[in-house]
Amino acid sequence: MIEKMKKVSLVGERAALKKVIDTLKASGNFQITFYKNSSNPLSASDTALNHTYQTELTRVTNVLNYLQVNNRPITLTYRALKQVTKKQKQIENLLTIYEQAKIDATGLQTQINLNQSTITKLQKFRDLPVPANLLQPTKNAFVLAGLMPATDFTRFTNDIDTKDFIYETYPTANKNLIVVITGDIDNQPLAETILDYHFTQFPTHYHFERTPQKQITYLTKQNQTLTQSLTKLQTKHRPTTEQINLLKTYYDYLLNEIDTLEILTATIQTKYCFVVHGWIPARTADEFTQLIKQTDKHVALTLQDATTTDTPPALIHNTPLIAPYNAITMMYGAPGRNDIDPNPFVALFYFFFFGSMFGDLGYGLLLSVITACILLVKRPQGGTRQLIALFCMGGISAALWGLLFNSCFGLHLPAFIINRTLLDPLGNDATLFFALSLYLGVIQITVGNLLNFFNQLRLKQFTVAVCKALPNLIMFVGLVLAFPALIQKIIPLNYAVVDWFQPLMLPGLIVTIFGFVGVVFGNGIGHRLGGYVLGMFSGAYKLVNYFSDILSYARLFGVGLVGCVIAYVANFLCGMFASVGIVGLILGGIVAVLFHALNIALSLLSAYIHNARLQFVEFFGKFYEGSGTPFVPMASKLRYARIQSGTRK
């Protein structure tokens, strides 16, 4: 249900503006309207305050990131949010402790990473028996130490005159040689020549007095000690839930204060007065009026209904079963001022269509159980909660369709549960499933036209309702009656249920033709002769568009059939591998699990996307604009806090 909104105007003394803004935020039901031309510079004191808030916000952000705090919301009153500064001393103490802990932890982790990097670099030289400090050049001699393939070293000694330098080699386990070369400083160009023989030089910046192997052992032990120190530090400074919630609340307090200062710059103000405009739900008008009077009796409050030129924000309230489907509607757009709430109808069709594309008892129950556990344990909020609840109900729909398909992870259910398959997409019922998908599309499009007709009547657009919306509705009502028997003429369907519609085919066709004639001749109503003729052609062309819309519902059949095929292949491969023994059974089980997991992922994604597409294009295109803006009350954009609305307690 789309709630009725009231337009609010507040006029008062400029000195009371901050207090009024706090009241508006505390109500939890006020959306402010900003004006592009409104721009008021902050006072010097407010500018300094804003800088202080920004600095503090950076500190808290760094601490929360260090503590890796989750985004789980906390619920509190607006007054509790404002009064968090009473614990400023405790907050400052926590920030100081965790800032120092972060510095200490960063230092330890940096040293651990540096040691590990050195260990990695030394690994290839671990067979070198010479300490690093003895490999440094002197005033009169150079020293080269490094790794070289044995074959390249042989080629090197054959190509270069070795009389001018001394070398030692030490074999490694992977057919390489550790080579140490020293000689007169005049032979320094040898350092460039040797690189042509795949020579990897030992890092010259290492000066430790141990061999590489002993240095690796030393650094490994040092890292163990540093890791223990880091663990002790993290354990010592592990925050309690109360401390985390306090820092979260303080973070949102700072966000809220910065937001208040931004609002001060964007409201209409004179030297002595302010003017604030916005919207509230009509049902909260009395409570809102009382709040304003309690805040400042000198503030003038005006409440008005939305006029034809206003564009009030959209606030939708529905039952818990319908509310999750609001996520689908909002992806398309919030209801405009002339729209009706589509969510009850979206809920019905989306639920039904989801199961047809994801139809399997095992898949559906698995999806419902997993998502239900997430909802109960993790308790997500906002859009995430709606999406997970949507999948949870989609799993129920998939389980119901799985009973219809007699399929549980691609296998037939035991006879004591279902003794016959009502609809077998992989067997003789594939054509029936295809026809059923198209028929479901005809029904949804009919409902869309019905909603458009009643919406035009609600808006008192009687000419549009009678001359345009009604003919479309009549045409599809006739098609609903005639379609089952008509499709049987094209695709043989030897089912008794289809035969029930045979007497309705002729009346249905007559109604359909009558409606189509109305579409053609009514589409140009309201135009002059030239426009009327063009409107007739446009109305006739709608037949092509409607035919395309109906065919779009074949995706219900296509996605559902692909899921059944993949499940069948998974079980077939499992059976094939299992026939060769216990190893084959294990391998077949792994293959089956992987295939079923892939099938669940693909089916879930396809059911979500293709289902939404049917709602957006084929359904919403008939009656819903979605050109509105959602209702966003003040103080609703905090990161962690969820403000209890309608109270300053």
Largest sheet: 5 strands, antiparallel
Q: Could you report the average pLDDT, rounded to the nearest whole number? A: 89
DSSP strand tally: 11
**Which spans of ≥5 residues are poorly predicted at pLDDT below 50?**
none
Nearest-angstrom radius of gyration?
37 Å
Q: State the helicity in percent bands.
A: 55-70%
Cα separation of the termini = 29 Å
Large-scale geometry:
extended
Question: Looking at the chains present, what oligomeric state does this protein adopt?
Answer: single chain
Query: Which structural class do you get from the secondary structure elements?
Result: alpha+beta
* Percentage of residues in DSSP E strands: 5-15%
| Secondary structure tally, helices | 20
Name the features.
four-stranded antiparallel sheet; alpha+beta; extended; 649 residues; Alpha-Beta Plaits
Description:
- With 649 residues, this protein is of the alpha+beta class.
- Helix content is 60%, strand content 10%.
- The chain contains 20 helices and eleven strands.
- Strands 1, 2, 8, 9 and 10 form a five-stranded antiparallel beta sheet that branches. A four-stranded antiparallel beta sheet has the order 5-6-4-7.
- β5 and β6 form a beta hairpin.
- The longest helix is centred in the last third of the chain and has 42 residues, at 582-623.
- The chain is extended and about 110 Å long.
